[in-house]
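Give me the fold.
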Amino acid sequence: MDNFSFYSPTKFVFGKGTENQAGKLVKEFGGSKVLLHFGGQSAKKSGLLDTVEQSLKKENIEYIELGGVHPNPLDTLVYEGIEIFKEQGFDFILAVGGGSVIDSAKAIAMGCCYDGDFWDFYSGKTSPRNALPVGTVLTIAAAGSEGSGDSVITKKDGMIKRGAGSDCIRPRFSILNPALTQTLPPYQTACGATDIMAHVCERYFTNTKNVETTDRLCEAVLLAMINETPKVISNPDDYEARANIMWAGMVAHNNIVGVGREQDWNSHGIEHELSGMYDCAHGAGLAVIMPAWMSFVMKHDVMRFAQWATRVWGCKMDFSNPEKTAKDGITAFRNFLTSIGMPSKISELGGKEDDIPQLVKNFGLPEGSKTGGFVKLTNQDIAEIYRLAL
């Protein structure tokens, strides 16, 4: 196991009706004027936004609404939030929604404390040192942004999708009421489940040795997702299954399952170009890319894939041919994803082979260099993974 520092200061308030505590929690963490950030009309139609606003009013907290966040959140709305800060001022951002809303709130939080262009954080020019405090009311279990120090934004000019990260953007608090996810369509629920599983897999496939504790934690989260996801696909009102998935989503990405081990994240980077170009759901793109990436890198460490196949997917270990066991695990993963309604090919997302050169170009890897943890990939490798996903 590698040396590590782990800092996860977010206060989680979990369970039915907890959204009523939003105002109290904002005040607890020093907020007096709030930017209330949300997505489309669902938060309003469901009454959730009204509930949150009433809780703010109860604590005499001013608020400014900024809605309009879309999946794969755009830089244009982030700039709008930063401009509101310059004109009207606020000292806290409350994100009501899923990962896209939370990621957008984090970007605004960083941009309000920076004299330059907030995109500098996403282009890798600099790292954030300060940010306004952020709180969340989560409405979908997927991105894990409610507990992480990460944010992903799409630049509208060129539809380039990039990430930024820092402990300063970890939410001060996150309200997690599984009942708020019960109205999600099955497809959106499945996309979220896929994202959760991908967050674990990006950590599980590692070159670091002797990480049994975090191996077992990763496997436990995956097993829980395999068990609980079909339940909510068939019965969206299964609160207990929703609760297990919601907590799995947080655990999968606040890095408790990833400490002390090298991580990869190539699958996420490769997928970001799919959702950037085709505006598909991130989870749907991952369902296409993850098995293709696994097939491409499997021979790098066949026994790690065989371990994953036997411990997570229940495959029988073939000691005379461990590569067969590894392949069986990848097949089981792909079959599970299709069983919950996920796509298996880029063509199902609207993509075609002619797009691959542009996807690789958008990835932004300088020619001659490599990226990744488990296996270092070149632009040619990335292109081949896209082809395998066709």
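The beta strands are 11-14, 33-38, 62-66, 92-97, 134-138, 150-155, 160-165, 173-176.
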